[in-house]
Amino acid sequence: MELVKDQPARAFPTTLDALTFRFEDVPRLLRRTVDSALYGYELSRTQWRLLAYVLREEGMTQTELARCLELERASVGQAIDALERKQLLERTKEPGDRRVWRIMPTRKARQLLPELRDTINEIYEQMFRGFSAAEIDKLHSYLDRIMVNFGD
Fold it and tell me: Which domains does the chain have, with CATH numbers?
């Protein structure tokens, strides 16, 4: 790759180092901002993500949610337990297979969704302030290419 070869061996940080550092900085800032916004709802980032998946596709199993969230089943189970205690999710048995539980949002979760959605959308607006729709599409495309390069 010419970009890498063009970097002086002793230069530090290189242009690619600086760019890679940014790739690490942005998620950290996003995590901090989302954590702060969700604090008032007594939700963790993982709980929010899990709740968002269940609200979008009701009846997913813990295994399916773990795959979507790229987390261990045990971690997802703990998040589901916490959301059950908050009366935002409930487990329902799969007819015909007592080992399988479907995760369903409660009425309370559905009622909370518009407010949560507004909160998260405000973060997105802050994050992408000054970007055009075309620039966001390009950024998405670039990130997809990077993921393909890593084989994901």
Answer: 36-120 (1.10.10.10)
CB proximity list for 65: less than 8 A, separation 6 or greater: 50, 53, 54, 76, 80, 103
**C-alpha distances in Å from residue 67, one per residue of 54, 107, 109, 114:** 13, 25, 22, 26
**pTM score over 0.85:** no
Percent of the chain exceeding pLDDT 90 equals 82
**Residue 106: helix, strand or coil by DSSP?**
coil
Provide the token pair at 133.
């729709």
Count of CB atoms within 10 A of residue 150's CB?
7
Nearest Cα neighbor of 47 from 60, 38, 56 is 38
137: DSSP letter: H
